[in-house]
Amino acid sequence: MKTNFTPIEDRVLLRPAQAETVRASGIVLPDAATEKPLRGEILAVGPGRPAKGSAERLEMPVSVGDQVVYGRYSGSDIKIDGEEYKILRADEILARIEG
C-alpha cells in the first residue's frame, strides 16, 4: 500500500481475503458465483475511542497483521491505489483467527 492511511478512533483498515474461484473438486467458479470472504488482514489500526468521561483511550482489541472475521454487512468498502479495502469499527470484528 503506497498511501499513508491512519484510521481514526476505533476504526481499522483491512484487506479482505481473496474469494475462492476454484473448489476442491476442481470446478472453476465464475465471478458472479463466488461469495465475498468474511475475513481479512488488519493493515492499520486507529488509536482507540475515548473512554466515557475520561481523556484516556480504550485499548484496541486487534493489531496490525491480525487475521479477523467480520460480519457480512460490516464496514465500508473503499479503493486506495486501485486496491479494494474495508474500513470497520472494532466492534464490527467478530473474531481474531489464531495460528
Topology, element by element:
Blueprint: E1 11-16, E2 39-45, E3 67-70, E4 76-80, E5 83-89, E6 93-97
Antiparallel strand pairs: 1-2, 1-5, 2-3, 3-6, 4-5
Could you explain how this protein is built, in words?
The structure is a single chain. By secondary structure, the protein is an all-beta fold. 16% of the residues are buried. The protein has a six-stranded antiparallel sheet with strand order 4-5-1-2-3-6, with no helix packed on it. 0% of the residues lie in helices and 34% in strands. The chain has one domain: GroES chaperonin (10 Kd Chaperonin, Protein Cpn10, Chain O, Roll). The chain is built from no helices and six strands. It has strands at residues 11-16, 39-45, 67-70, 76-80, 83-89, 93-97. A hairpin with a 2-residue loop joins strand 4 (76-80) and strand 5. The model has no long low-confidence stretch (mean pLDDT 85). It is elongated and about 55 Å long.
